């Protein structure tokens, strides 16, 4: 079985030319990280801790239009009592207020 | 039980890099001179296929038999025929013949995201080999079509990090043996017995029922490999099922009966895979559950039959089926809480028993061939819709419900007489158009994800078939989405072929999955494919 190297070179050149990928992006993304402490009301140390970032704390909006105001809703790390939220694709705006709250799912 | 032990052993044996070593060994063995004889090497081999063709010709008054014959030959059908035509018709050899072919390929998928470094954009880098062999006489033979696939991670282990065959080593009932970076698929592996009035087969088989070119509503048996979505060679989408089939040649028509004793699940892209749906409505990250098959017991047997005939130039058939549905219901099953990850939804593929009645027809008029195909089910399952605007009210798992269901496709092939416009053009120009729609009759259940597809393809060859061109467009008309897939190939006519293609995916997306095109889930997945193939002999 013979394979002409020139074919491979042409092929790879064509592939690279078509792709035209840029350099590795310098954009590190947007992350929000922090720590938390559990109060005495927590029934179990093993219960999952959920962290939410919202754009409004209006009760009606949270109850009836949660998808409009909840930006991210994630599970914190119970071992280290930390969280790290990736907001890179969440269209976060610098001129907007955001609110962060956490709660323990005692049923979890 | 011996069989589960054997499967576990095979599973362990073929997992991880050990499979790569096996593949390399097999490759070396095949590349070595004359261990086995290729199909064109022996006149006896050709005779075997001449004999088979003649056996089939006995029934060529029946189009269904012709269809089945085409199915037998699989993707190498044309080459087999070429081999038969080019050789002289020899006497049937007194003994058994062993014939084989192979096709090796080096396939690459590169995402066209200019923000990404090449190593991140290079999503797939796969070496594959497809082996076809047949051993026996024209009437009694063992047939196998086996695919070996692996990622050459020993060359570069950073390419294709988010593409894997399976998240864990796994051996399926149809002998699809998968690991993270390698896979063996016994696409077809059966024993064939042909007599004057019937043909019996036992083993892993693919049933090419239906006349549609792209989506067959009456393809009841074979699971589909959705890990590459639609972007796989069409003849590699259907996976074989362990089954027993009988084709009976009756006066003026044929009847094919199929029995599938165990269900086989369709593979889907694993969570995190390049092809996996990441989230829906921009709010619900998805995690996909294991694609487990239904239990192996008599309740989950699959049975089907198809009657086919030709009348006044129209090929038609009627078919029926009872057994596990070949496509699962993707049920939103539960929330998933994984530390440092967004709260996600587990989507569990679930299979249900279903009944189908189907029919198909095709006929030629001038340069056109028209096709129609439909299947009706009185009890196909889907999940019941819920209001996703209030996540706090969602109840998991979603309920499922059986309802009436109809799927159909209409299409035509137009063999364009391009030589009339371009004198000297010798290639075959073909335009294919097909409309596919599927619908549940109960509005309370979620509609089928694959429906309202208008697929068009133009394909042509130039320069003595050296250059092949095709342009495929898939329009999702319900919620507006389109896939454009131009492809060009150059055949060196020495076994090597190079192909390059570009896939553009665009779908309407407004954050409501009932209004979002299914293509919108893959909006960021435009890619280039570059493939090198070598066929031998």
What does this structure look like?
The complex is a heterodimer of chains A (108) and B (537). Chain A has 108 residues and is an alpha+beta fold. Chain A has one domain. Helices cover 23% and strands 26% of the residues of chain A. Chain A has three helices and five strands. Chain A has helices at residues 5-19, 59-64, 66-69, and strands at residues 31-35, 49-54, 70-75, 82-86, 99-104. A three-stranded antiparallel β-sheet of chain A has the order 3-2-5. Chain A is globular and about 35 Å long. The model of chain A is unreliable at 1-26 (pLDDT under 50). With 537 residues, chain B is mainly beta. Chain B has two domains: 1-181, no CATH class; 195-413, no CATH class. Helix content of chain B is 13%, strand content 45%. In chain B, the strands form two sheets. Chain B has an 18-stranded antiparallel barrel. Chain B has a four-stranded mixed β-sheet with strand order 10-11-15-14, with no helix packed on it. In chain B, a hairpin with a 2-residue loop joins strand 8 and strand 9 (253-260). Chain B is globular and about 65 Å long. The chains are: A alpha+beta (108), B mainly beta (537). The interface between A and B is large, with 37 and 36 residues.
Helix-strand layout with pairing:
The complex is a heterodimer of chains A (108) and B (537).
Chain A: H1 5-19, E1 31-35, E2 49-54, H2 59-64, H3 66-69, E3 70-75, E4 82-86, E5 99-104
Antiparallel strand pairs in A: 1-4, 2-3, 2-5
Chain B: H1 2-14, H2 17-31, H3 43-57, H4 63-73, H5 77-86, E1 97-111, H6 118-121, E2 122-136, E3 140-150, E4 170-171, E5 176-178, E6 182-194, E7 198-205, E8 241-250, E9 253-260, E10 279-280, E11 284-288, E12 302-311, E13 314-324, E14 329-336, E15 344-350, E16 353-365, E17 368-383, E18 400-416, E19 429-440, E20 453-462, E21 467-476, E22 481-491, E23 496-507, E24 527-536
Parallel strand pairs in B: 11-15
Antiparallel strand pairs in B: 1-2, 1-24, 2-3, 3-6, 4-5, 5-6, 6-7, 7-8, 8-9, 9-12, 10-11, 12-13, 13-16, 14-15, 16-17, 17-18, 18-19, 19-20, 20-21, 21-22, 22-23, 23-24
Helix pairs in contact in B: 3-5
């Amino acid at each position: 079985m013979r394979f002409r190297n020139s074919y491979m070179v042409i092929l790879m050149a064509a592939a690279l030319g078509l792709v035209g990928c840029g350099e590795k992006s310098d954009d590190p993304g947007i992350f929000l990280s922090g720590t938390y402490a559990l109060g005495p009301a927590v029934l179990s140390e093993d219960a999952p801790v959920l962290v939410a970032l919202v754009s409004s704390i209006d009760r009606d909006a949270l109850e009836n239009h949660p998808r409009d105001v909840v930006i991210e809703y994630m599970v914190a790390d119970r071992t280290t009592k930390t969280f790290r939220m990736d907001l890179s694709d969440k269209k976060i705006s610098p001129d907007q207020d955001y609110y962060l709250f956490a709660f323990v799912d005692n049923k979890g | 039980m011996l069989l589960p032990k054997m499967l576990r052993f095979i599973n362990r044996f073929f997992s991880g890099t050990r499979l790569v070593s096996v593949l390399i060994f097999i490759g070396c063995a095949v590349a070595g001179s004359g261990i086995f004889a290729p199909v064109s090497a022996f006149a006896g081999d050709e005779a075997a296929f001449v004999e088979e063709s003649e056996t089939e010709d006995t029934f060529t008054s029946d189009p269904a038999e012709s269809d089945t014959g085409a199915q037998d030959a699989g993707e190498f059908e044309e080459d087999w025929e070429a081999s038969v035509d080019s050789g002289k018709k020899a006497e049937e050899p007194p003994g058994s013949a062993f014939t084989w072919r192979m096709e090796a390929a080096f396939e690459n998928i590169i995402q066209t995201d200019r923000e990404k470094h090449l190593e991140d954009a290079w999503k797939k880098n796969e070496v594959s080999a497809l082996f076809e062999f047949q051993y026996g006489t024209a009437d009694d033979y063992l047939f196998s079509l086996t695919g070996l696939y692996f990622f050459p991670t020993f060359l570069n282990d950073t390419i294709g990090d988010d593409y894997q065959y399976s998240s864990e080593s796994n051996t399926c009932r149809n002998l699809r043996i998968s690991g993270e970076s390698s896979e063996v698929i016994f696409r077809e592996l059966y024993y064939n017995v042909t007599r004057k009035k019937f043909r019996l087969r036992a083993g892993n088989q693919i049933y090419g029922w239906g006349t549609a070119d792209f989506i067959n509503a009456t393809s009841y048996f074979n699971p589909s490999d959705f890990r590459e979505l639609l972007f796989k060679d069409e003849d590699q989408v259907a996976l074989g099922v362990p089954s027993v089939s009988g084709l009976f040649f009756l006066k003026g028509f044929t009847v094919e009966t199929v029995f599938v004793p165990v269900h086989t699940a369709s593979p889907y892209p694993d969570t995190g895979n390049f092809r996996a749906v990441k989230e829906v409505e921009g709010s619900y990250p998805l995690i996909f559950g294991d694609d487990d098959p239904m239990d192996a017991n008599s309740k989950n047997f699959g049975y089907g039959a198809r009657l086919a005939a030709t009348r006044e130039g129209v090929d038609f058939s009627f078919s029926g089926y009872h057994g596990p549905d070949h496509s699962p219901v993707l049920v939103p099953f539960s929330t998933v809480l994984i530390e440092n990850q967004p709260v996600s939804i587990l989507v569990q593929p679930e299979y249900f028993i279903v009944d189908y009645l189907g029919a198909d027809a095709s006929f030629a008029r001038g340069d056109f061939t028209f096709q129609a195909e439909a299947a009706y089910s009185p009890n196909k399952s889907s999940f019941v819709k819920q209001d996703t605007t209030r996540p706090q009210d969602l109840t998991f798992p979603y309920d499922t419900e059986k309802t009436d269901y109809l799927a159909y496709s209409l299409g035509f092939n137009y063999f364009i007489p391009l030589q009339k416009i371009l004198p000297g053009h010798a290639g075959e120009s073909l335009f294919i158009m097909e409309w596919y729609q599927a619908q549940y009759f109960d509005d309370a259940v979620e509609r089928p994800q694959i429906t309202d597809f208008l697929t068009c393809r133009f394909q042509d060859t130039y320069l003595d078939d050296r250059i092949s061109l095709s342009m495929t467009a898939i329009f999702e008309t319900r919620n507006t989405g389109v896939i454009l897939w131009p492809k060009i190939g150059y055949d060196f006519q020495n076994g090597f072929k190079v192909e390059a293609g570009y896939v553009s995916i665009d779908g309407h997306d407004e954050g409501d999955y009932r209004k979002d095109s299914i293509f919108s889930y893959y909006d960021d997945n435009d890619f280039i494919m570059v493939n090198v193939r070598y066929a031998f002999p």
